[in-house]
From TrEMBL:
<dbReference type="GO" id="GO:0016020">
    <property type="term" value="C:membrane"/>
</dbReference>
<dbReference type="GO" id="GO:1902936">
    <property type="term" value="F:phosphatidylinositol bisphosphate binding"/>
</dbReference>
<feature type="domain" description="CRAL-TRIO">
    <location>
        <begin position="115"/>
        <end position="199"/>
    </location>
</feature>
<dbReference type="InterPro" id="IPR036865">
    <property type="entry name" value="CRAL-TRIO_dom_sf"/>
</dbReference>
<protein>
    <recommendedName>
        <fullName>CRAL-TRIO domain-containing protein</fullName>
    </recommendedName>
</protein>
<dbReference type="Pfam" id="PF00650">
    <property type="entry name" value="CRAL_TRIO"/>
</dbReference>
<dbReference type="InterPro" id="IPR001251">
    <property type="entry name" value="CRAL-TRIO_dom"/>
</dbReference>
<dbReference type="InterPro" id="IPR036273">
    <property type="entry name" value="CRAL/TRIO_N_dom_sf"/>
</dbReference>
Length: 200
């Protein structure tokens, strides 16, 4: 069954316009080609790692090699971190039903919008912004759980390997009260995973 993540707010006229326009289509993508030998080498290494899943498809392995600029040693480290950090953060990576009320609530409170076209340099842009700025409704763990669910869906559905990703954070509506609702242990896990293990 295909799971489609949709936010009701994505259909607001301003976001629909952004999504339709996107960015220039005549981009010169500088993404590195990943060879079959790279994938075979990583899969051979993976077969000796009993603590890691053995059912990773070639597309995901290619993405990891690509995101690590072709360095197979960095790819191995990133794969280790990908699975270990996820296991260490059940608050983000367990109970991930897109229909659960907490997740649906997040889709009503924030906009997560990957733009459909890449930049002239070959980068994909992803827009984040608050749809509802009320700090009392800001629940960081729920936001991150939903963000990673969308991210995992994109990893599976976006087969084109681009040069990289540019996050665009629209800070309109954020206040110091939002900062007081950031649990530091969860923030630390979020930062480490996105910087060291998230294959985008």
């Amino acid at each position: 069954t295909e799971v489609v993540f949709q936010s009701p707010s994505l259909f607001r006229p301003d976001l629909t316009d952004i999504c339709a326009r996107g960015l220039p289509s005549d981009a010169t993508v500088t993404a590195r080609m990943v060879s079959k030998d790279d994938v075979i080498t990583i899969r051979s290494w993976l077969s000796k790692q009993a603590h890691l899943p053995q059912t990773i498809d070639d597309g995901l392995l290619r993405r990891f090699v690509h995101c690590c600029d072709g360095s197979l040693e960095r790819t191995k480290t990133a794969l280790e971190l990908f699975f270990c950090l996820r296991a260490d953060a059940p608050e983000f990576f367990k109970d991930r039903d897109p229909a659960m009320p907490r997740v649906q609530n997040v889709f009503n409170l924030i906009d997560l919008l990957p733009l459909p076209k890449v930049t002239p340099e070959g980068y994909r842009c992803f827009l984040y912004r608050l749809a509802d700025p009320d700090p009392d409704k800001f629940h960081f763990v729920d936001y991150v759980k939903t963000f990673f669910m969308v991210g995992d869906t994109r990893i599976r559905s976006e087969t084109e390997l681009v040069a990289g990703e540019v996050p665009i954070f629209d800070m309109t509506g954020y206040t110091l009260r939002h900062l007081t609702r950031l649990p530091l242990p969860a923030l630390r896990k979020y930062m480490q995973y996105t910087q060291e293990a998230h294959p985008v």
